[in-house]
Automatic annotation (TrEMBL):
Database matches in Pfam families: 7tm_1 (PF00001)
Recorded GO CC terms: plasma membrane
InterPro entries per UniProt: GPCR_Rhodpsn, GPCR_Rhodpsn_7TM
GO molecular function annotations of the record: G protein-coupled receptor activity
Domain of life, source organism: Eukaryota
Keywords assigned: Cell membrane, G-protein coupled receptor, Membrane, Receptor, Transducer, Transmembrane, Transmembrane helix
Protein name: G protein-coupled receptor 119
Keyword Mitochondrion found: no
Domain G-protein coupled receptors family 1 profile: 22-278
Main location: membrane
Native organism: Cyanistes caeruleus (Eurasian blue tit)
Protein family according to the UniProt entry: Belongs to the G-protein coupled receptor 1 family.
Chain segments annotated as transmembrane: 6-32, 44-64, 79-101, 122-143, 163-185, 225-242, 262-281
Amino acid sequence: MSTASWALGAILAVLASLIIAANVLVAIVLLCHIQKSGSKGLCFVLNLALADAMVGFTVMGLAMDELSQPFHPSQNFCILRMAFVTSSSAASILSLILVACDRHLAIRKPFHYFQLVTGLRVGVCLVGLWLVAATVGFLPVFVPRFQRVNNHWKCSFFNVFHPSYMLTMFCFGFFPALFLFLYLYCDMLKIASVHVQHILEVEQAGLGGGCPPPRATSDMKAMRTVALLIGCFTLSWLPFFITGVVQMVCSECFPYKVIENFFWLLGLGNSLLNPLLYSYWQRDVQLQLSQLAAGVKRRLLLHLGSARCFPGRDTKALPAVSCLELQD
C-alpha cells in the first residue's frame, strides 16, 4: 500500500465517520421534535440528514477500498458503488433545494403555509426527490455509453463515468440546481430586507417603542444565516464541478488526482456542514438536543449512583433513598 492511498483512505474514513455521527444524531433529534411539534417542514431537514448520512456510509466503502490496496474490483462493482455515491450526493443537494423552497414559501406566504405544506405533499416531494436522485446516480448503469472503459480499475468518479455523463450531469443537474438555490435564498434576502426597512420606518415614526422588535432581530439573523448557507454550499461543490468541466476540455489543466483527492473531498465536507448549518442553528432543535443530552447524563448518573449503593445484582432499585440516608 502506498503512502498516498493510506493517507487518502484515512482521511475518507475520518470524514465518513464524522458525517455519519453528526447526521444520525441530528436525525434522531429532528425525529423526536417532529413527533412533538408535528412540523411538516422539518421533514425536509430530516431527509437532508438521512441523505448526508447515506453519503457517509457510501464514502466509508471507498475508504475501505483505499485502505485495502492493492484492491482490484470488477467494472460492474465500481459502477454500482459510484452510482450509490452519486445518488446519495444528488439526494443531499436536492434536499437543500427542498429546504430552500420550504423556507421561501414560509416567508412568501406565511398565512397559507400550513394549508400548503401538508403531509401528503411533503411525502410526494420526498418520493420524487429520491426517484430523481436514483435516476441521476444509476443512469450509467442502464446506459452503457455513459460508462468509461479502463484497464486500471479503481473505484473513483473519473475512472468509472464517461465525460459525456459528467458533462450532462454538470450542465443539466448541478448548475440549474445551484442557480435555483441562489435565486430562492436571494429572494428570501430581499423579503427580509423589506421587512427590516418597514420596521425601521415604524421606529423612525416613534411607533416602535424603546427596544427593537423581535422581528427585526430575527430578520437580521436570517439574512446572515442565509448568506453563510449560500457561501458554504457554493464553496463546497463549485470548485469540484468547475474543475471537472475544465478537465474535459483541457486534460492537462487539472489532473484527475487533484480533483478527486482535494476538490471532491471539499464537496463531501458539505455533508458535514449541513447538520450544523440547518439543524444546530434552529432554536427548537437546539432545545431538543440539550434535553436529549440532559436525559442521557441523568441516566448515567442514576446508573452510577445505583452501582455504588447496590454493588450486587439486585433488580429492585430504590430511587427515593440516597446513599447518605442508607449510610445513616
